[in-house]
Amino acid sequence: MARYIGPKSRIARRFGEAIFGADKVLSRRNFPPGQHGNGRRRKTSEYGVMLAEKQKAKYTYGVLEKQFRNMFEKASASNGITGEILLQNLECRLDNVVYRLGIAPTRAAARQLVNHRHITVDGKVTGIASYSVKPGQIVAVREKSKSLEVIADSLAGFNHSKYPWMEWDESAKAGKLLHKPERADIPENIKEQLIVELYSKN
User: Fold this and answer.
1) pLDDT tens per residue, range 38-78
2) Which of 25, 52, 78, 152 could be a cystine partner for 9, CB 3.0 to 4.6 Å?
3) What does the buried/exposed string (b/e) look like for 171-199 if buried means 16 or more CB atoms within 10 Å of the residue's CB?
């Protein structure tokens, strides 16, 4: 499956946020990349601001353009606030749930664990990172994968209480999605209304 594998620090510097996780480069060079990154910048147009917000959401959740567009169309066809539903659906992707449960240190690492079939959903091995986890489903580490160092290191000291829409069973190395998260509980700094406005212009 295609995914972004380019320079992540450069992307994080563009948005001025550690969207891929802790970033030493960003902390040292907290200005946009490029020859003139530390100088005066032209004011970004309204369209440019909306486009940047969409790009930030895509990179944050590791979703490519076609997938993101499909998720937006699905959200816009649902009852409710389109932007909030879009973020809720992104949060319910299997790779993101694995990341939120602390099984992996980053979404990219979570995606790799899923792709390499280390994760189960309701007891069945699931190798599709974009799988949409439903409320009530159990996401767990596969029995033979529980000793993996990357998983043990990620779970060590992880605070499972910070995401109230999930619960964690340490002995089983399994978590349950209790319900879709409320917008106020999603910590990502994304202005979803700008994304809705962008797509409404196209």
Assistant:
1) 555 567 899 999 999 999 999 999 999 999 999 999 999 99
2) 25
3) eebbbbbeebbeeeebeeebebebbbbbb
